[in-house]
Write a structure and sequence with these properties.
alpha+beta; two-stranded antiparallel ribbon; 6 strands; about 10% strand; globular
């Protein structure tokens, strides 16, 4: 299976923003080896599908109604910088690759597990009282936290939505 890369030129039938080589190099840069090229392609495509599933919350709007993927976009401003409608922002590539690494680690993008960095401690008080604290033993961010932060940078209101209130 080979991925078809969206370059910003609205490539027909594109299914990824990042190439396999970029993904493997990104993974290697953080100490992860991606050995299976078929799995790498599947992870990239699944990660791109996940990003595209958030389209209603993404900044900007599609360049063309018939483009294969959610990017490129018109009116796109990320971290204070405008992106052309012929560009795929680096944040999109980074988010896709980070999400693909989450998949590689066994994470379900649609049903996130509790972060490995947020361990649960339990304290027992004599008697009938038992107290649990969801605290971290370290300040280390999980890999999933990175992918979610990158994804949030692409979304309006960090992925949160607002409901306008009218006074009447």
């Amino acid at each position: 299976m080979a991925v078809i890369i969206e370059t910003g030129a609205q490539v027909t039938d594109s299914d990824s923003y990042s190439t396999r080589a970029e993904y493997i190099a990104y993974a290697a840069s953080i100490g992860t080896t991606i050995a299976d090229t078929v799995a790498a392609d599947e992870q990239l495509i699944a990660a791109a599908i996940f990003i595209d599933s958030k389209e209603a919350q993404l900044k900007g709007c599609r360049v063309d109604r018939d483009q294969s993927m959610a990017f490129p976009r018109n009116g796109l401003v990320i971290e204070g910088f405008s992106w052309l409608s012929t560009e795929i922002p680096r944040q999109v590539l980074l988010a896709q690759m980070a999400l693909a690494l989450d998949l590689n680690a066994g994470e379900d993008l649609y049903n996130l597990s509790q972060s490995a960095s947020a361990g649960v401690k339990k304290e027992r008080v004599e008697g009938a009282v038992s107290v649990e604290y969801a605290v971290s033993d370290s300040m280390k961010l999980s890999r999933r936290s990175r992918s979610q932060a990158l994804l949030a940078s692409l979304m309006t209101s960090g992925g949160l939505f607002t409901v306008p209130l009218t006074m009447g």
